[in-house]
Design a protein that fits this description.
two-stranded antiparallel sheet; single chain; globular; 8-stranded antiparallel sheet
């Protein structure tokens, strides 16, 4: 009789402990409402690989080993089918950047050109989070009222930010041949969301709102999963798709003595041809290294 009671007691304790676990294995034992201490898992496995991921560092690079270097600026249009993951409402790139900047986890750098920085992309001036928000939202005039409901003045305030308004990102990168490792590779330096600029009623086109330093952003991107169309279990993070270059883009500028952009000397379809010519030259360089 004593043995039966002890066995029954252990069985009851085991059932209580099991009931407190989240129902992740399609168990037929229900979880009592009053004993559920944690939020149920949204699925049948925990997606913790990306949440706990760490950045894989680049190989060390010495300036004496750089045999060739070319700086390239290119743009990513998230409206293209191949880039649809960057605009997914579940994991939108601009949302990840803005959330990290406003939370103080990532620094944003001013993109305004100066005498010492004509391109505005040398990461010289750090912006405050409120300055970053002001880059996207238009200012609105808000009236001020007194206690009697009489208007006594007005002030300007920043409007609401619409993430869907950001449809392009500019990337600054260096193509490098490391003779020590015999490797020819591109390395992204910075990423900038693009905004439309208007002044005196004139449309000045799209310009970088601000720059983020990619080596800093990698620590944020590596923990952010990417939503793809065909498979929910790819295990890809934003760091992965940038490092693997899983995006479609077009070149808008290459380093040159005159510091000219492609649109400064080519118009219409010729801009696309020039972009493809530069792209082909970059790829041909590596081919020519081993063809003789």
């Amino acid at each position: 009789m004593k043995r039966i009671c002890i066995t029954g007691l252990f069985s009851m304790l085991g059932a209580m402990l099991y009931a407190q676990q989240p129902n992740m294995n399609n168990s037929t034992i229900p979880v009592p409402v009053d004993t559920a201490q944690e939020r149920p898992v949204d699925g049948y496995f925990r997606k913790s690989n990306i949440e706990n991921a760490k950045v894989t560092p680049y190989a060390n690079l010495r300036d004496v080993d750089v045999m060739f270097s070319k700086r390239i600026w290119r743009e990513i249009d998230v409206r293209e089918k191949m880039n649809s993951a960057y605009a997914s409402p579940k994991s939108r790139l601009i949302d990840i950047i803005m959330n990290a900047v406003t939370a103080g986890e990532l620094r944003a750098y001013d993109a305004v050109s100066t005498k010492d920085d004509p391109n505005g992309d040398s990461f010289a001036t750090v912006l405050k989070p409120e300055q970053v928000m002001g880059k996207f939202a238009d200012s609105v005039l808000i009236p001020d009222f007194n206690a009697n409901g009489e208007q006594i003045g007005s002030h300007m305030a920043t409007g609401e930010f619409n993430p869907d308004s950001v449809v392009k990102f500019q990337i600054k990168e260096d193509w490098i041949f490391d003779k020590n490792r015999s490797v020819y590779e591109p390395r992204i330096i910075g990423i900038a969301p693009m905004v439309k600029i208007k002044a005196a009623g004139q449309d000045l086109g799209e310009q970088p709102a601000f720059w983020i330093y990619f080596p800093e952003a990698r620590h944020i991107f590596v923990t952010k999963p990417v939503t793809t169309r065909n498979n929910d279990a790819t295990g890809l993070s934003y760091d992965d798709i940038f490092m693997k270059r899983l995006f479609s883009s077009y070149i808008v500028k290459e380093s040159n003595p005159e510091d000219l952009r492609i649109k400064d000397y080519a118009q219409g379809i010729d801009r696309l041809y020039e972009s493809e010519r530069i792209k082909k030259e970059l790829l041909d360089y590596e081919h020519d290294l081993w063809s003789y």
